[in-house]
Amino acid sequence: MGGASAALVALPLLSLSNIAWRPLFGLGAIPPLVTLVLRREISESWVWKVKRSEVEVRIRNRGRYTLMLAFTSASLFAWTFILAIFANYTPSIMVSTMGLSKAYALLIGGAQWLGFVAGGLMVLRYCDRIGRRILLMPATVGEAALLYASIFLLRNPLWISLTLVVLWILGGVGYVVNSVYSAELFPTLLRGTSSGVAFSMGRLGGYVSTLILPMLLLSIRLAGVFALLAVLMTPLALTCPLIAPRSEGKGIDELEREYY
């Protein structure tokens, strides 16, 4: 919702022309300040408090732990790599490459974030009913297929607008499922570290893609960027059915005993 709100806030600032980014950056300081205040009231998990008295973290199946950490880290890297490109550059791409108006481009930028919300809400509603893996597989395969199809259909503004929204619906499913995985698949005393590693890999993916996209557009053009993103998603689409676990309906302690 924050991403969609940012696009709406930017619309009236278009009248400021080349200095519009300055007040927009300033407004961006407000949410983290509010969050900083709210976080002061959040305590540690009682499960962690109970288990922190254990002197040693015992993992019988280190191969399983390594595989799950690698899977969640690689997944969040790939999903964030893709989503960050469009989070940061959709309006610029639509204006510079397709000649669309800045207002229309911002509205599409906001609509893609609403697609992410829709995908995330789908996970929250169905991840325990039909399972994480069942949600993740079609989202990953669909994302790869849509990226491949977009290579040949970029000239159509309507197509690319609809494609971006659908990509973000699937992105909401894929990103949120992997975020759920990173919060539940690891032993309690390693959960914070493991989830932090996976989340940091996601941030790294977003940093890298945001940094290199302008250079990619100059060298391989927009169609090449879509091809690169499709290739990046393909290994996940192939390995997801084999690696993604079925963890629905199981408590954290049960998962810890079963896996480790």
Written overview of the protein:
The protein has 260 residues and is mainly α. The chain has one domain (43-259): Growth Hormone, Chain: A, CATH 1.20.1250. The protein contains ten helices and no strands. α7 crosses α9 (188-243). It is globular and about 60 Å long. The protein starts with a helix and ends with a helix.
At a glance:
The protein is built from ten helices and no strands. The chain is mainly alpha-helical.
Topology of helices and strands:
Layout lengths: L1 H12 L7 H7 L2 H10 L6 H6 L10 H35 L5 H25 L5 H19 L6 H28 L3 H56 L8 H8 L1
Helix pairs in contact: 1-6, 5-6, 5-8, 5-9, 6-8, 7-8, 7-9, 8-9
Order of helices and strands: HHHHHHHHHH
Total number of distinct structural domains: 1
Structural class comes to: mainly alpha
Determine the CATH superfamily: MFS general substrate transporter like domains
Report, as a whole number of angstroms, the end-to-end distance. Answer: 37 Å
**Segments where pLDDT lies below 50 for 5+ residues?**
none
* Named CATH topology: Growth Hormone, Chain: A
Q: What is the general shape?
A: globular
For the residues shown, what is the average pLDDT? Answer: 91
Radius of gyration: 20 Å
What percent of the residues sit in helical stretches (DSSP H or I)? over 70%
The DSSP helix count reads 10
Q: What is the level 1 CATH name? A: Mainly Alpha
Q: How much of the residues is beta strand, in percent?
A: under 5%
